[in-house]
Design brief:
The strands form 3 sheets. Strands 1, 2, 3, 4, 5 and 6 form a 6-stranded mixed β-sheet that branches. Strands 10-9-11-12 form a 4-stranded antiparallel β-sheet, with helices on both faces. The protein has one domain (26-258): GHMP Kinase, N-terminal domain (Ribosomal Protein S5, domain 2), CATH 3.30.230. It is elongated. It is α+β, with helices and mostly antiparallel strands. A hairpin with a 2-residue loop joins strand 7 (161-166) and strand 8. The mean pLDDT is 92. The chain has helices spanning 3-17, 98-113, 145-159, 203-208, 235-258; strands at 33-37, 45-51, 54-65, 76-83, 123-125, 128-140, 161-166, 169-178, 186-193, 196-199, 211-217, 222-228. The chain has 5 helices and 12 strands.
Length: 260
């Protein structure tokens, strides 16, 4: 952490000691969320999410491939994430960074564990099924990439139209059938700073955090959890975060479905 980050972190901690967040939000508040779907014409589905000043773009492409041997009647869903250099001075071009790999795995785990995509509906015929490629691109970083990316990924999947398949050929210009979505999963990410649990940490709060927790839920069940950084959480704190995550799901789901 450089000298500027140290100053920012100390400032965030000093504010919290007085019960104040830098942007005056309550500890349980998200920043403003904006979702725009269908922005990429050549993608089967897409969505851009602005979570405060954090901006993420998700795109979906479908290709026909051979089903896996252990699931001969199902298609597949693959997830990737890229931290573009234009998003932050800390991001560089090149092979996937540990941060981008973690982001992709966390978002993918929630969608996969929540059984969001009906992979059986992706089956075409013997030896052929649709493969869904979901790519997330971070366009601007100001904290909490996990929730922004989960929202963008779900919104893009809901926006996806499957190309027609006729006489043994795919017709990409003809998109009639919506991708079958069985469940909607959202995530809530918390930062722990000086004993306070903050929902949706911005960039400065991310830098000051001693521990981080991301919880993915469909409103009924906790589908996945991911802890980050070196600090710890008590059982009471985990229960508090889980309860808040379940409660926040419904408003997040409503915004995602409204943007379809």
């Amino acid at each position: 952490m450089d000298a500027i980050d140290v100053v920012k972190s100390n400032y965030i901690r000093e504010l919290l000691s007085r019960g104040i967040r830098e942007d005056m939000r309550k500890v349980s508040d998200f920043r403003n969320i904006s979702i725009k779907s269908g922005l990429i014409q050549n993608a089967e589905g897409s969505a851009q999410v602005d979570l405060g000043n954090t901006r993420v773009l998700a795109g979906v492409k479908l290709d026909i491939g051979e089903p896996r041997e252990d699931e001969p009647n199902d298609g597949t869903v693959a997830m990737s994430a890229e931290l573009l250099p234009l998003a932050s001075a800390d991001y560089e071009s090149g092979p996937p960074s540990p941060e981008s790999i973690e982001l992709a795995r966390v978002v993918d785990r929630g969608i996969r564990a929540g059984k969001c995509v009906d992979t059986a509906d992706l089956f075409i015929e013997e030896g052929k099924a649709w493969n869904v490629y979901l790519d997330v691109y971070v366009l601007n970083y100001d904290g909490n990439l996990f929730d922004a990316s989960e929202i963008a990924a779900m919104a893009a999947l809901i926006n996806t139209k499957v190309p027609a398949y006729e006489d043994g050929k795919e017709i990409r210009e003809k998109r009639i059938k919506a991708l079958k979505i069985d469940n909607v999963v959202t995530s809530t990410t918390f930062a722990k700073i000086n004993g306070s649990l903050l929902l949706d940490p911005d960039g400065n709060e991310d830098a000051a955090a001693s521990a981080r927790m991301t919880i993915a839920t469909d409103g009924q069940f906790i589908r996945a959890m991911q802890k980050g950084l070196g600090g710890s959480f008590s059982k009471k704190e985990i229960a508090e975060m889980a309860e808040m995550s379940l409660g926040k799901h419904h408003e997040l789901k409503k915004q995602i479905e409204k943007a379809r």
